[in-house]
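>> received
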Amino acid sequence: MLYFAYGSNLHHLQMKRRCKDSIFLKKINLKGFKLTFRSKYRAADIEPKKNSNLPGALFEISKSDEKKLDIYEDYPILYKKYYFKYYGKKVMTYIMTKKTPFTFPTERYLNIVRRGYIDCKLDTKYLNKALKY
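>> returned
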């Protein structure tokens, strides 16, 4: 199945540790969404925003990888699944169930996300913009 990562799962080594079968396919943009950080975990989330493009990564994952991600993402309590079409193919990602106010991520978490942006060759200006809430 196809999975869209936009936060710490962009980090290739971390993603491999979590999902041993995962294969990074390419970087893509999710139209009509923007990146933010929220919840007591100060983690990445996405929310709809007109005329906005959210950079992220497309991964191929197995069923067992999906089960591991469900546990890691605290599905369905913290995150729920969101599906969208990419060139006619169904893609899964996670979005937070509760839209709490913006909270600045921890330095450690932010460094993992930054490393992921580098791994996936994404433009860090999008990440910096999300931090200037």
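>> The mean pLDDT is 97.
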